[in-house]
Fold each of these.
Amino acid sequence: MTRSEALFDDASEDAPELRASYALCEAEVKRYLEGMWRAIELLPAEIRPHCHAVYGFLLHADRTADEGGTQRERERRFARLHTETLRELRAGRSEHPLRRAFVDTVRRRDLDHAAVEEFLDAMRTDCASPPRYETFEDQRRYLRGVSGTISEMLAPLLEVTAPDVRALTSVLGEVGQLVDIFEDLPADLAAGRCYLPRADLRELGLEVADLTAGDRRAALDALVDIQLGRWRDLLEQAAPVAGLVERAYQPFLRTLLLGAQLQFDEVVLRRGLVCAEGLEPLASTGRTPRRPAWPHAGAVPDHIAVIMDGNRRWAVRRGQPVSQGHEAGEWAAMRLVNAALRLGVRHLSIYAFSTENWDRPEEELASLFETMAHGIDQGIEWLHELGVRIRWCGRRDRIEPSFASALTLLESMTSKNDALSLTVCVDYGGRDELVEAARALAAEVAAGTLRPEDIGAADLARNLYVPGLPDVDLLIRTSGEQRISNFLPWQLAYAELVFDPTPWPDFGLAQLRDAITVYAGRRRRFGGGVPGPARPVEPARGARLPGLTPPAGCTPPPPSRIRGRSPR
């Protein structure tokens, strides 16, 4: 008997009601917290009902505090819920159709009663009067009370016992509540509820009414920037938690982190406008929203290539194994894709695994490819919904066959997408690519289908791993190293280069936007005297003989993100 089958075994007389309660919790979470429901689906099946029960209880408490009646009536209603819930927890049993599952989960999985009581106290305070937080410390007590406690309740479900890791789960919950504050900001302000620290407003000469008036944009931008700085600090604190739990629970936590990072990046774009516009939740409609490209003051490069460097150093600085740096790098690549789409980039190429990376220890290689395969499983639906076409650029003869087949299938699955072309360079080396292209041309000459004197740039280009890949306009390398490491030498001929000191797992939309701003400020002459657009590939000069076909090894498939090579 599985744990999920045994869930109701020790309460057989209540089994139908208990099953119905757990089902109700899941239905509520799926309806009102679609993103959380999706994340919970990544967890082992036996703990999903318990997670649904926790978040179902959160929704029940939130609805009780917010819906219907006068302020006094809401207070009385929530006080009753507070009293009844604590009494039910002491008894280990509830007759309420939704709380029955929550109380059962608390009892069965030994959830922290103190965290439940702290949550209820924080919600009752929020229900009693409009919020007024003078300082960030005051705001953090609220964040901890209404959301950090919920995340901490999950700790036993995720087999977290160490106090420091429990604390990190709480910080992740606080980050999630910050996301909620910005998503609901216009509605809350309209209802007279401002969750931002008043000291920040006073410092900038702002009143609460100014937040939606829209006529003090510079001050509003500065106010949001202050909040972003704190949000970034909390994200930095919470980031290690995903690497400190068992592997079965890591996708769940990384998905929560990624969602918070994507919404953080969205606020980076909107700045003061978020006060009047808020944010659309990432999964409010059950599908990933396709947001239009955000206007940029200068030219946006059509093709950006990125050397994703610094995963290992990022992990070492945090006292984590190298594999956790590669895991974090995988999710950073998904964040990069979203940032590229939001900034209007049409082509993105990432250096995931180089031909030189085979020299790494066997254990690390195994971890790298496991991470890559895992990234495909976790990211393909999201990328497909965003309209991303994925292509694999690199050698195909050395990758494990089943993995190579999966990549080829993904390339086929996304071939009709056109929002962004993502070229993932796996087992790629620029010199190898040029040698293979030269061999293919030599074979054509030997077969009599091409004359040596007719060979032009277009002939070599059509024999590269991904024919038709446009020239790179901007190359970015993270983590401070300043070399191109055998990456796309043909396409980089006239690229602008930007070297960013940020380690790859911390690279986000702000860094990408800064690199694009640097690019827009440069004068591109392409060897001439007048700046202009990228030059097209020189057309083929010789007539083709009948029967000429492109050589094998043209367009391969994609993965997700893997890792950047530190000492490329």
Amino acid sequence: MQTVKVSIDRSFAIGETDARLFGAFVEHLGRCVYGGLYEPGHPSADAKGFRGDVLGLVRELAPTIMRYPGGNFVSGYNWEDGVGPADKRPRRLDLAWMSKETNAFGTNEFIDWCRAAGIEPMLAVNLGTRDGDAARRLVEYCNFPGGTELSDLRRAHGWPEPHGIKFWCLGNEMDGPWQMETKTAEEYGRKATEAAKMMKWVDPSIELAACGSSGRTMPTFGTWEDTVLEHTFDHVEYISLHTYLNDYAGDTEAFLASPDLMDSFIDEVVAIVDAVAARRRSSKRIMLSFDEWNVWYRTRRRSEGRTKLGWPVAPEILEEIYNMKDALAFGGACISLLNHADRVRSACLAQLVNAIAPIMTETGGPAWRQTIFHPFAHFSNFGRGRVLRAEVASPTYSATYHDPRGTADLAFPLPAVPYVKLAAVHDEAGRTVTLFVLNRHLDQSAPVEIDTRGFGALELSEALEMRDDDLSAANTRESPDRVRPRALDGVRVEGGRLSATLGPASWNVIRLAAAA
């Protein structure tokens, strides 16, 4: 491959990354909660039933905010079922994932787990089978100090201090026919507006995200966002986006190009929300919460183990095993999020443990890192700071990405995909520049020359590479470190210029520090 030329300048930035950009998601789905982060009796579990081995991996992964309790699950969830004495909580059928919910783990346990992990909680309210009244009652239960029925109920349950939850989601994927009590945009917009009003009357300090369309391939996409924001614009700070990258077609080049469609998706939603603002002559800018994103395809269809018969408790469903190829596409998605830090202020990897997750566990046994764990840990630990506007001159290739919707097969032509995708983040406090670089060429190494301006002399702090000659290589219980980052050799830094050769089909992280 010909040399890829990159230039970055300290003076030209896209925006500062918000701490909430590096979030994840815990849903009552399969073994995400039960047997995942919560397993009383596990050898590593603490007195509250939280698995210590999982907590250790979560701290290494370093998510900053955690969405809960759904997802599809929230559209049928009664929050009252999950508070109070555990032995008095009802067992219910969960229609989202065709399983039984014991409610042994609920809102207060989730808050305790977030505190143990050092993570900000994000709660979603049920706007499917319930309404704004239930939502404002949950805000009162969680956030009001005391002296009312619901705040005193929380105190009686053993949590005397308010939880102080600041970020709330107004339902989930309400245009999806799979959702309990699907809504039209008009129906949802009105319901979300009334819920938002009451929730903010209880606690004016909270921030709210309205549901965007369930995905870019939905027939409702675009008109949904426009209509919903016509109702909710004055009451919300965010609108949500969801996407799952897939390789149903078995086309690796197209799969690795798919993160570029995330870029287009974000740009389109920004255009829609700003058009709503323009019609209102408003200077307010609605920000984006990309609160579900991941690679997901092997276990996505109902015929592929999406649910189990017999209404089991915590069934082994959606337990996607990620390989090296998945980690590359995943890393590309991380780069896309960084390069839209000016408008994507919150994002949640879906999900955290076992169900389409970076962490896998064996019930009663060990926990280990999936391949996608590593790009996310790099993204979260090293992605804090000012994202610089990088100019990348790279050879390109063409691909067509397929995203099935029901029986339809939607094709997205990508005529000029750069082989090298890159994001650069400047941490002014730490005096570092971190480069996240994906080489999408399957067979050729990528010589890269990077010109950095305005930083003075830099020196190499660390260089990591993740690649494998076998793109199907995965981490397992028996081989938990089969795919992992290793040192990237041959990186040269002279003054403000860097040169390196990136292996074919590789995820790379290069960290530069101000010279002493």
Amino acid sequence: MGSVAQYIENGVVLPPQAYGPVSEVDAPARLHNAPGTRLFVGRKAALDRLDAEFATPGDVVVQAVHGLGGVGKSALAAHWAIHHYGGNPRWWIAADSPSSIATGLAQLARALQPAAAGLPEEILTEWAVQWLSSHDDWLIVLDNADHVDHVRPLLDRVGTGRFLITTRRATGWHSTAVALRLDVLEEGEAIDLFARILGHACPGENDGIARLCSELGHLPLAVEQAASYCAETGTSPRTYLRMLAESPAEMYADTAEGGDAARTIARVWRITLDRLADTPLTGRILRVLAWYGPDGIPRDLLTGLAPAPALTKAIGRLIAYSMITNTGDGTFAVHRLVQALARTPDPEDPHRQEEDIAQARAVATAQLDAAFPETPASPRTWPLCRALVPHVEALTEYAPAESDSRTTARLLNMTGVFLMNQGLAGHATTVLHRAHRGRLALLGEGHPDTLASSNNLASAYLSAGNPKRAIPLYESVLADCTRLLGGDHSLTLTSRNSLASAYLSAGDLHRAIPLHESALEGCARVLGKNHPDTLTSRNNLAYALQSAGELERAIPLYESALDDCVRVLGEDHPDTLSSRDNLAYALQSAGELERAIPLHRSALDDYVRVLGEDHPHTLTSRNNLATAYQSAGDLERAISLHERVLDDCVRMLGEDHPDTLSTRNNLAAAYQSAGELERAISLHERVLDDCVRMLGEDHPHTLTSRNNLAAAYQSAGRLSRAISLYESVLESRLRVLGRGHPDTRSVRSSLDRARAV
């Protein structure tokens, strides 16, 4: 610092102790000004990380804790400074601007050397920097640093000691500090924080605290804001949760009496967006992302929102301010409360105007629709479909049905078809029902898209094992298609085929077979005998005849369909492969195993070569071959192949996919045929539990599984259990399928035999 004479000339008279060398000034014992942390909870991993980083001896150590506003960066820094760091002094400086840093350093100088308190601030600031440079074992917390350039001049001049920086800026620290990203609290920590503020022992779920904390995304500031409000007003967590759903804008901005109005989540994040206002695209992006799920948002969903350079810059700024997180795999994450706030209109907030939010919802819908594959039944599109479904679900949860557009309905229709092909019939029904309502309201009941949605919804009902709801809807669709589009329209032909398949599923062969014959005649006449839809229709009729036991008619039809598929589509077309497999299965049903097994092998080889080892159709073909081996009495090969198929289904489709359940059921039947009754019963019991859980009590697969378990019990001599299960199956068959259905008659026969024993 300057000479004493200067200060005397300026009228400043200093005590003698102010003239000593800065390096000889010792800090008063236990000097610190860090804020208290009475409500601090958890954070063990972050505290351990800071302990390890600051334990490094030698030169200056700089640690930057970054994260979303309200995530608890300052609380972590204060707690660590007070309770973990043993050096002296521990000094807290607001670092949101260069002038704030200078003021904080001047205050440190006054605390270290009270005799110099009368000096101008710029001199005290310089004195503090010199003191830091000539001492070690101190800690400076630079809180809420807005930019690395604001703190770098200080860091560049000091070569010893410890700096702990808190900042919303996630980027730009690589050459200055070791960065530590702070995430939200663990569930138990959030509940503990809420309970401490509430002032009584936490009753957990019974009071709705856990659910409220989850809704708040375990964000410390939001949890503290909600708990303080509840404590002061006597509001229960469940009531607060309801108020949050009904009046989100008010609840995000409100705080308890005497609370810091600047420290509500609405205010904290508005400040951040104000700082990003020079890049208006950042607000638009955030409002679009608000309509998706919080995790795994594909970057491609933002493609086309702006020219690539501008888009990249805006995304970078949002990441830099911790408003979104780049997860490193081509996806983003956004905290659920940031999303909730961004889609909640507030006329007082320029970043949350109602018109802008509505526009963002429309853009988010259009981006999802453009990204969703138009062929969701194709396995090659499944990975992308699976990545997008959570965001379709979020969009439909957040957006009211009355806001649905034609684009929304189209997106939901494709999503429902995908879910149906994944065996998630119940989920698909919900999605397709909303798609159908949207098209009905927007397009009218006679529009082809509305009719197609009706047909898909009926298919979902049928897949869910509910033919009583599916068949009337199919019949209505066919009548409407015939009346409005004509009997020869492609949608009418498709609808006729669908209704025939529904009759078949319900066991109504007398209506199914004539309708399949009519559908085949129509396809051949309108589309031509070589059209793929005609070939599919021929296969469907063959399957109906096979189901009716008319194998002498089914097998020639399968053979004809296969020949035409080879000629028209080629040896390797998926429909050709399917047709070959169907013929093999019909031959197997007819007992012609010497023809069936080689054809199954040929079909499997072709599936492996054309579609790959893990394609669902390949797994089905391998399962069919295993069943043929079982029919031929070659149980060793059958069981080995069934076990392989089950492993592959679990790996590729998941534990709960219907094909996995079916394969597990087949393996249990093979064990039973081999006399391994205990293994068979154990597996049958698991399949039944899974079917009930995934498909429901009355789904055909569930009833088949229950019937198979009853047969296994009967084989093991457990007649009382077998009879009880048979009775349960018979009751369901009568209720769902009726007295005359072949499956109902079969169960009644099995029950009579078990009772006779």
Amino acid sequence: MVVCGDDGLAHRLAAELRGVYGEQVTLVVPPNERTVRPPVVGRARAASATLLDRMVSAAVGRGGIGNTAATGGPSGGRPDGDRVLEAFEADEAVLAEAGVERAAALALVYDDDETNIRAALTARRLNPRLRLVLRLYNRRLGQHIEELLDQAATLACDGDPEASADAATTVLSDADTAAPALAATAVVGTSKVVQTEGLLLRAVERPPPDGGTVAGAGLCTLALLSTPGTDPAADGSVGSGPRGNGEQEPRLLPDDEEVRRAAGRAAVVLEQLSSAGGQEAGAPGRGAGGVLPLASLFSRRLRWSLAGMVACVVALAVALSLVTGIHPLRAFYLTLLDMFAIDDPAIGQSLGRQILQLLSGLVGLLMLPVLLAAVLEALGTFRTASALRRPPRGLGGHVVLLGLGKIGTRVLTRLRELGVPVVCVEADPDARGLATARRLRVPVVLGDVTQEGVLEAAKIHRAHALLAVTSADTTNLEAVLAARTVRPDLRVVLRLYDDDFATAVYRTLRAAYPQALTRSRSVTHLAAPAFAGAMLGRQVLGAIPVERRVLLFAAVDVDGHPRLEGRTVRDAFHAGSWRVLALSGRTDTAPDHVLVKGDRVVVAATRRGLAELR
């Protein structure tokens, strides 16, 4: 496997492939990335001499595409070892040096779309049978590039369907992979939704019931969450041992016995398994063609003023009809004439008619400034539709989104699809997400969140949650700490890359603010399993974060698989590794259904469980 990239996703992906799947990896990174401490995947942290630690250490002080560092596995494994190449760009010479002609798969995860596309075209020419995985932010361009590269592979393979399938191209976006999980974490009660093979899976985090257990809640229990301060001896669940501080680790895919013994532990439960056909039914509607709604044209005070004027006109028309005995429609017509001063004076008519004419003229005078204000407000609304909005007065119950980069933009779109009110905070006036915020008419506060008054301008004291997703861990942490000084019970979700740092922050914040919900997420941690699965030809359909772990959903063919074929759905369950949820496209899979050749199942699996299913 060859991984080329210039940020944390490359290191995370390489560690995922080697530490979870046992693959031999060549990592291509820029020279200035050699000092980045790569993440450690899974429980390999206990063995301090991990693969990437050795690769980075061996790469220090070397430069150029020909300078490679060969190392063995964590236990002195492969003799030919894994390598790190230092190069600013994955051009033809670098790809050849990395061994693309002999590689099974290549992942191009540079932050720049153009760099990934250029390298992919070169790699396809060097090795037409190479499986390609590209990281692209532009969705539409990604679809065209995927079709183009697949067509080139098909022609190079002389139409061989098996060879073409092995040389498939997969275009993924780390932002699209992580955004749903980040958005769902920030909203209380929002289910974590994964669309898989025509099915819609909804999982929800449920608190521990009073004196009960989570057994029987939902279709199945996907994970048991950690419990701070719990006596380790209180729960003998396999694989859920203490962390050394009286805290139970989260347990993914527990069996029924573990769930029954997990009294007092919150859980992530599969709540619904349904067809994905109507998944967008609950999405908030948008006006056709981007037409602004009437309520956005006029302020609330002006709408009330207009309503009051209409009520006065109706009252005068009814009074005129009663005084003169004429038809109500004619009375309404005469009232409008009197208001606009184009009717004859009521000389020689009854006193009541004269009084009503004077009152109608007075109402007409009062309506002139109201109509002028309505015209000015409407014009101002259209004029400022392309400008950034400020948080309105009285706003509350919203989500404060910090950062409008690639990740923040996708999270903002997802939150608005869920109908959640959002206020964005961004320091860069040229950030890519400002155009999206302007189009969605989302209030934005421009300013450095570390400066005093910026969070207050975003109405943080009345917010429902803070979602900090900038690329700087320290900025996210500083924003969370500042917000907690204003609102100690505020729900916070912060994006942190380093696992050890995130664990320390999470435990400290949870201990300091026990009544407030705190979550930390890593975008590369959420996205790496999908990229790794694509490199191995495995279709990872979605991921749900469980604290700092990830539960994957994948489609697996039963044909020839000894752990699945010939077994019932119930017997195919492997606690702590994988669970068969359904057959593809079917919501009525019985536990006694026997899996046979030709079946394709949707499984929930841990990263190591999915590796075992290979």
